[in-house]
Amino acid sequence: MARPAVFAAGVLMLGVYLTYLTGMIYPVLLLLILLGVVSFLLFRRRVRYAVFAALTCILCLVSCFTVFRIVSADIDDYSGEISEQVRIISVKRDLDGSSAVYFRTSDGVGAVMYSDNFDNACHPGAVIEVKGMLSCPESPTNPGDFNLSGYLRRRGIKYVFKAEDIRLISDLPLISGLNELIFNVRSYIFSHITSEMDEEERSLVAAICMGDTSYLSPEIRSLFSVSGCSHLIAVSGTHFSGFTAILAFVFNSRDTKNRDRVIMCILFIVFGFLTGFGDSVSRALIMSICALYSRDKLSGMGLAISVMAVADPFGLMSSGFIMSIAAVTGMTLFVPRMRGIPDIISYPIAAHIGLMPFYGINGMNLSLQSFACQLAGGFIVSLICVLFIPVMVISLAVSGYAAVLIALPVRLLTVVFRGLLSLDLMSLSCADIGTEVFVAICVFLVVIVMPDCILKRIVFVPSFVLGALGAGVIVYKILFPGPLTAVFIDVGQGDSCLLLTPSYSILVDGGRYSEGEEILSVLDRYGIYSVDMAFVSHWDSDHCGGISFLENSGRIGQVIAPSECTFDSSDQHYVDNVHVSRTGDVYTIGDETMIRIISPDGENQGENDDSLVFYLESPYVSMLFTGDISCEKEDELMEMGRIVDCDILKVAHHGSRFSTGMGFLEQSSPEISVISCGINNSYGHPSGETLAKLQEFGSDVRRTDLEGAIVFEFNRTY
User: Fold this and answer.
1) Whole-prediction pTM value?
2) Fewest 10 Å CB contacts: which of 97, 411, 418, 531?
3) What is the Cα–Cα distance from 639 to 77, expressed in whole angstroms?
4) Using an 8 Å Cβ cutoff, are 67 and 322 in contact?
5) Do 143 and 164 reside in the same domain of the chain?
6) Between 309 and 73, whose confidence is greater?
7) What's the chain's Rg over C-alpha atoms?
């Protein structure tokens, strides 16, 4: 039954894939109906095959239509306070005690409740009475931010619920008891194995071996994100193959009997319990079991897709599901064609080919460092997973000290990643290229591996032309990258701007300390592990806090400021190894781009008027950064003849009425004025007076409180 299974799975995946890429459901439905008819014609001689294919196409139609309607529809706004009985549909409980409880109200509205302390009443199937506030999750405001709203929407959830009171109405004792038992066993195993490890090692063992990322620090999350290895801290097929590697010594895969299959399936399920049955774990579990019972890889994948579609229709719209299937498809199609290439290299390359269409969608950053990290990381993580089960058994039976066998490769993993990411190798931002380019290349590669047939002869030349054009675009982007990108990061009531040239990365201010994680996300989005230079305009916490956070995380090369750090060394804002800059200093940050300091002149106390003021000058754009200086300081700089025309002005002091005088605007003549401030901040920034002056002058005003991050990308014709 391999042919109809593969065909039906292909129909299902094509529908989901097209819906995901285009956002259009009705053309996709029409295409699927046509494919359903074709499937019947293909298999009409074998009635059971025809019925199977037709049923799968119907499943595809219903799943795509139902899920897409819920995911894309504008549901009536239920935001506000509620007090009613709800039924819990699922619970994600982490080892650190935090949880995410998903439920639906009596009107069918989906919501999620996050908590740092798990409530014993919250188990799947339980009915609870809740009182609290429903609200829509905030949309991402910076490049690289996690889109919680989109993630929840793809699960059929629109709201986040903040509970004031929870009361259990009815429970399913068997389910709640089983859940408690499983969690207690997982907690005991984790605490026993990691008792002699430090925090970083513990967090990685929890993520890699037990599917729990709750202990990961922002720095470690960022380390795996910027290296392109986030999948290594989410239990997947790679981990399952490592967990079950020891079974190869027990069962002969060529002569696997039904009894052995049953035993392996039971062990797979046990591993699922140990790793928490998260989304990625469930996908890996289903695909492993289906592969065990299938005749070939494509049939196994087809069966797995069908099972997952029935088990969780919303999972079809998950980015993780789509990308997992795409990666597996790439490995299935292309690895057999890479004869003579070691598996450790051929499998990642084939997975990258399968994932090409998603690079542009997700704005991923590709580099030689990230590819090297994936090769080395995949091998080390496989080793960790191979060791996990034996070490767990030995530790439970004898002593927890056996866990050093896992601690050593875990430590090696972070050392290798940090070492590779410190290298300056070629990188490519897929967001600058577009999805279409990668789709064209991927289509051509798929056509190459197709069996020789009429269809291949027809589409070969067009696909070759499109693939060549796509490859040409990528080569051009690598050889001639954009000379400058400026990202004014949304850090709330603070300042922060990331400047990127082909050779340097520069961070101007970093908002408050609590905004450091936001900046890390932006750095990860652009593939930056360590910022070359960070300019601190002055030592107010809304400018230097994020810089301190990044320095503590080892993510900054050099810090430049108008004076030594004014915070005590015991304060979290303290920044060490500061280079003090003065008027006249010039920093070359590219072949044709430089930063020229125009203030302050000498020793200062770090006040607002002592802010570091500088021009960024290039043949394509000029930008003026003013820190928090006042109108008096602006007048002083004008009298000295230091203020000249600029294209973009970073408005001083978040748009305060005490800055940005009319004379200053006439002298600097900015086409665009950027104001960085927080939504509904207590200072009333930006001032109506300042906005009126900018409007009167005719400068285009851009605000982070209204737009989120503001990105300028300059090319050589700007």
Assistant:
1) 0.83
2) 97
3) 56
4) no
5) yes
6) 309
7) 28
